Amino acid sequence: MRRPTRTRGWQSTFSGLTGLGLIAPFLVVAAVFILYPFVELLRTAFGEPDGFGNFGDFFHSPAARRTLWTTCLTSLIVTVIVVAVGAVLAWSLRATKSRLTRMVIALAVFMPLWMGAVMKIYVFTVLFERFGVVNRTLTWLGVIDEPMHLLRTQFAVVAGMVYQMLPYAVLPLYAVYVTIDLNLIQAAESMGASRTRALRDVVAPLALPGLLASTVIVYVICIGYYLTPVLLGGATAPFTASLIADDIFNLFEPAQAAVASVLLLIVAGLVILGGLRLVGKERMRRAIG
């Protein structure tokens, strides 16, 4: 008499070997495109010609120090403006009942994402050049007598970066505002609070994790900008990314380029750790979505 064959029962969870096989492609990609370049970056930064002294050479250079300072300061200015304007736009997008207003705000927010980087920079070049739209308009209105020098300035860099970074603040903040019940504001107003105080005491504390998460996102992206500072700012607003490009392609100093890259990573890491410290890992993750 044949014994009945025993079939293996279905399991709702993967075995360790199966899970390892599923994530193996990701591990390979991460090792090749993330881990290996990072190790090579550190090896170059702490390698020839002076090892750890490469960092001393970087900070002994006035141009390098000025570039790093300009990068951090300009990115901070852009971040403050973007988060402040983004918070207002995101709340208007959440609270308005007008479909036309919502459509106009959404179009203004998504437009930078639909345009190429070079096209966006070219638009600001047309706006800010000596005989561009801004100078012509101000001259026609009688505000100025002769064209202002707007292009190749820090102002042009900040304006261009703010326009490009706005969606990265509006979208996370809108995702946070959607979770806030508008009835809470009406309840606060019914208790005697003004609209401004209701927004300050009710909405702001609930949206704080989203505000901090947006601040971290915007700042970390800003410090790595290259095209906008080069084309709109030139020598007046040098960014570390342009310094890295010069070290690699013009000066042929890979060690200094690696040092600048490591310093940018350190700045980004400190900003991220500061955000996690203030809001917590779980709240930051929910705010980012």
Task: List the defining traits of the structure above.
single chain, 289 residues, mainly alpha, MetI-like fold, 13 helices, globular, MetI-like_sf, cell membrane
SSE inventory with pairings:
Layout: H1 16-45, H2 53-60, H3 62-95, H4 99-114, H5 117-128, H6 133-141, H7 154-178, H8 183-190, H9 195-222, H10 227-233, H11 240-249, H12 254-279, H13 281-288
What would your notes on this structure say?
The radius of gyration is 25 Å and the shape is globular. α1 crosses α12 and α2 packs across α12. The chain is built from 13 helices and no strands. The mean pLDDT is 86. 76% of the residues lie in helices and 0% in strands. It is a multi-pass membrane protein. One of its GO terms (biological process) is transmembrane transport.
What's the overall average pLDDT, rounded? 86
Distance between the termini: 61 Å
Strand-and-helix sequence, N→C? HHHHHHHHHHHHH
Low-confidence stretches: none
Strand proportion? under 5%
State the CATH class: Mainly Alpha
Share of helix, binned? over 70%
CATH fold-level label:
MetI-like fold
Overall geometry:
globular
For the secondary structure, the number of strands is 0
Family: Belongs to the binding-protein-dependent transport system permease family. CysTW subfamily.
Keywords: Cell membrane, Membrane, Transmembrane, Transmembrane helix, Transport
Pfam families: BPD_transp_1
Organism: Actinomadura chibensis
Describe what is shown at a glance.
The chain is mainly alpha-helical. It has 13 helices and no strands. The longest helix has 34 residues.
